[in-house]
Amino acid sequence: MNKQDAENIKSKILEEISKTKQSINRFKEMSKPVAPDDAIGRISRMDAINNKAVAEASLRKNREKLKQLEYMLQHIHDNDFGLCASCKTPIPPGRLLLMPQSRYCVNCAN
Predict the structure, then answer these.
(1) Does residue 110 belong to any structural domain of this protein?
(2) H or E element that contains 12
(3) For residues 69 and 36, what is the distance between their CA atoms, to the nearest angstrom?
(4) What is the pLDDT of residues 9-19, one digit of tens each?
(5) Cβ-contact 99, 10 below 8 angstroms
(6) Domain count, the chain
(7) Under a CB-based contact definition with an 8 Å cutoff, are residues 51 and 83 in contact?
(8) pLDDT per residue over 18-58, tens digit each?
(9) For the residues of 48-69, what is the DSSP string, one character each?
């Protein structure tokens, strides 16, 4: 991978880390417990509980993404950065720009 591609990917990773941290904070707020004494009605309470579960799933997903992004940022200057973790073929820079947390090529990711 050339130096320019690595710098572009690094800036994309930093941008994605920032966005993901904002999403995590938003989902933390949305996944707070629904108080049983809220007078919002039975159906509305069920909707609130369902929305909380969706927010918790999104929170877990974003925390995992953040962990992967931070891993990629720590290893961006490694000699094998940009190589598929499975088959060791180069991952196209376009894929890394779209999904900077990706450690696998398209074939191995499937």
Answers:
(1) no
(2) helix 3-30
(3) 37
(4) 999 999 999 99
(5) no
(6) 1
(7) no
(8) 999 999 999 999 888 877 665 566 677 788 888 899 999 99
(9) HHHHHHHHHHHHHHHHHHHHHH
Token code pair at residue 74: 């720590």
Spatial distance between the Cα atoms of 110 and 79, rounded to a whole number of angstroms: 25
**Residue ranges making up the domain that contains 18:** 3-81
Residue 27: which of 46, 6, 55 has the closest Cα? 55
Cβ atoms 32, 51 nearer than 8 A: no
Gyration radius of the chain over CA positions = 19
| pTM: predicted TM-score of the whole model, two decimal places | 0.82
- The first and second tokens of residue 4, run together, are 């320019």
Place of tokens 């191995």: 108
- Eight-class DSSP state of 82: T
